[in-house]
Amino acid sequence: MRTAEFDFQLPSELIAQFPAMHRDQSRLLVLHRANGRLEHRQFADLTNYLRSGDVLVLNDSKVIPARLHGAKSESGGAIEVLLLEEIARNEWWVMLRPAKRVRARTVIRFHDCFGSATEIEATVLEKNLEGHCRLKFSCTSDIADELDRIGEMPLPPYIIRQPHSANKTDVERYQTVYARRAGSVAAPTAGLHFTEVLLGKIRARGVLVHVVTLHVGLGTFAPAKAGDVREHVMHEERFQLSESTGSALNDAQADRRRVFAVGTTTLRVLESVARANGGKLTGAEGRTNLFIHPPYSFQAVDGLVTNFHLPHSTLLMLVSAFAAPGQVQGRELVLRAYAEAIRQRSRSFSFGDAVLIL
Q1: Each residue of 6-23: pLDDT tens digit?
Q2: Which of 133, 160, 202, 224 has its CA 20 to 30 A from that of 196?
Q3: Residue 131 domain boundaries
Q4: For the whole model, what pTM was predicted?
């Protein structure tokens, strides 16, 4: 399949700049795979599609305040740093903006969330082929402990905010209510619609709720640039699946009970482990670069809760594969559903509305 086939036109005003007033008041578009039928509901109606014995799997990764602002010590030129992955204490791979004139041994001095200078510095150690830089932080015992003071939530570039415009709503709402394990630089956005009350109602229906962890990297939202989908190289992300979650999912499969993944990140964890173990889910941790695109036969997941995704994105390709497992016509089903959502003025992307694929 060609990357250009995963395209659609979205009016810019439908890119959600802020979340719904209440998490579970987002819209929910329900796509029935068997016949292509669409339903327009509210997210709180998700409970109507779950039944006793189903398993709902969440990604409990927590977003860190990974966007930092500072200036180059020599020139005073402003620079933005996005933390990508910790290598060791005070040593990180990062993305810099602007990056072209940044060389090894450049020193960056950082501001706090309000734009005031701090004592914290970092030195550029090297730049890799992807253009990412390795930074060594100084004047702090551990930069991870300083992020609440100097970092901002790493909202995607299509959500417009001014630097140092501290926004308590963003800090709270660009995070799931069940986030526990710090490490993501982007939110697992399908989970943003859940509240503790809604999860309580889901459990009360006899649905089992389990978690996995996948630390979401920036590459999640990167468009596929290769002309042929199969030539795209997927980024790696760290994950963990516990023995207890794996056992619960294996039991569900054996009893022909349904497994629902909340988010493409959760789905990728489950499918990665299942592929490595002949369809079984065992306790595992490591890194995955699994790229799911049509046609793909799923082994671990029966239903998917997700958001509306960007054109040409690997996430759009994944949901297209899920809409028609083992076949290629899922792209048409998903793009038709997206067109209907646009006609209904649904809100898109991270702070937008949700989709349930059954």
Answers
A1: 999 999 999 999 999 999
A2: 160
A3: 67-152
A4: 0.95
